Structure formats: C-alpha cells, structure tokens
Amino acid sequence: MSAKPSATALLAKRPRLLIVGCGDIGLRVLRLLRGRWRIAALSSNPQRVDELRAAGATPLLGDLDRPETLARLAGWADAVLHLAPPQAEGDEDRRSLALLRALARKSPPRRLVYASTTGVYGDCGGARFDETRPVAPTTARARRRVDAERRLRWFGAAFGCSVTILRVPGIYAADRPGGHPRERLAAGKPVLRREDDVYTNHIHAEDLARACVLALSRGRPQRAVHVCDDSELLMGDYFDLAADLCGLPRPPRVGRAEAAALMTPLQLSFLSESRRLANSRLKTELRLRLRYPQPALGLLA
C-alpha cells in the first residue's frame, strides 16, 4: 500500500500564479483561489509583505519601474495575472515592457491575463459595440493601455502564451476604497445635465475578480473581453440611482461649460467619452454569471 503524498508534495503540484499589482482586485482573487493555487504577489512596498502573506500569497519584492529588481520572476509562474497600471506619463507602458522582459528570460508562463481599460476605444458617441471595434484612444492614459495590449499580444504569439485582455470600465463596491458614489454625493459634486450626458459602463469588484479567475482557465488566446455588467446608464442616472439608494440628495446638474469650471481635467476627460459595451464574450466564453448584473443590486451589496 503506497504512502499518502505529503502536504508539501501536494502543494508542489498546484499550478503557480503570479499576481502583478495585487491591490483590491488582486486580494479578492486571492480569496477566491486560496488553497487551489500556489500564489506569489509582486509588490514594491515592503510594508505590504505581512498583508499579502496573511491573504495567502508569497510576497515578492520588486518594482516594475526598476527592471533590475524583477529577476526572480523568470521561470516561476504557470500563469500571470497582470493588474498593474502603467506609469503616469508617456504613450508607452514601460512597466508592462519590464514585466514581459523578465518573464521571457526563462520558461515563460502558459497563460497571462491582463486588466486593461475600456478607455482604449475613446469616444464612441454612445454607440453600443463588442470587442471587434477598433481601438481609438484619445488620451495618453488610454494610449499607454493600447501599447500594453499590443506588447502582450506580441508576447503571447512569440512565446506560445495564451493572453486574455480584460477591458474593464468603472469598478465599484461598497468595500472598495473610493469605490462607492456616497462620498461624491455627500460632497454635492455635480453631474452633467441630460442633454450633455454620456453613457458609462460599470462592473462590481467581486464580478471582476471572478472574471479574472475564469479567464485564467477559460480565456481564449490573444482575445479581448469586455468585463462589464448589463446596465446602460447615463452617468447622471447612475449617480441619481446611487443617491436614491443611499437616501441622499440627487447631485446638481450642470452644462458642459459650467462643468469645465468646476471639475479637474481628469474628471472632464471621463465626461468626453460615451459608449455602451456588449458583454456576450464574458458570458459565453468565460461563462461568468454576473452576481451583480445591475448597479441597483451592486450598490446595495
């Protein structure tokens, strides 16, 4: 009668996942995968070591802005979940380039999932569309994401790695830092009047984390997927809904000229893009059943 395998041997057989950019969404993924994967989390902050270890990950100290610190990443992971944003300036994502160079040094991963943004499409005039629409970024922030997507797709083709790009809109959750409209509503910040308003898209943080997990096993090679809920709300209607659910006054409505005097350039950039995203790939390819298909459910969670 053969001896039972030791706990160490069982652990060694688990697939190995590297999470890059293990913030709120990464921690949610850790909770979903704990015990099923061997997980390492890259962080540039030594003060996060205990938090990451308590969440079930092996902390790896390294900085995407300092490529020389990334040598330990080569050859370790079967899969990579890339959640780190680009640096704050330029049209290229130097952080993704540094990561891919480190991964390419030895035994590249078989799978890589990247959380991009729906901002890669630019302004679509409120049109409804799927992932076949060409990208047309209008800000440097979005151009860096397009650069990252291009580099990742090249890496996948060159190294036989299945790359799935998750294009993610506004993320919300009551327990996510800055992820609920309450503070903005309580401060009385305005929204656009209906005739000037734009369509926005949303996803609850828990549904995004679940999509990340499913993409690690079901994502198709070199494929983009919209990770959004089923809503099609104008931005002002979203904040009106949140106000009603929270028992707060609805935000004041202003025209674009007044908004330009009241809002930051970053806030105004979000008011210049209007789109409605189709999410059929999310449901048919990743087979995600949304827990919060409408913000009316997620805002109360």
From TrEMBL:
Pfam short name (any one): Epimerase
Signal sequence region: none
Coiled coil feature spans: none
InterPro entries, per database record: Epimerase_deHydtase, NAD(P)-bd_dom_sf, NAD(P)-dependent_oxidoreduct
The NAD-dependent epimerase/dehydratase domain, residue ranges: 19-226
PANTHER family: NAD(P)-BINDING DOMAIN-CONTAINING PROTEIN-RELATED, PROTEIN YEEZ
Annotated protein name in UniProt: NAD-dependent epimerase/dehydratase family protein
Source organism per UniProt: Roseateles violae
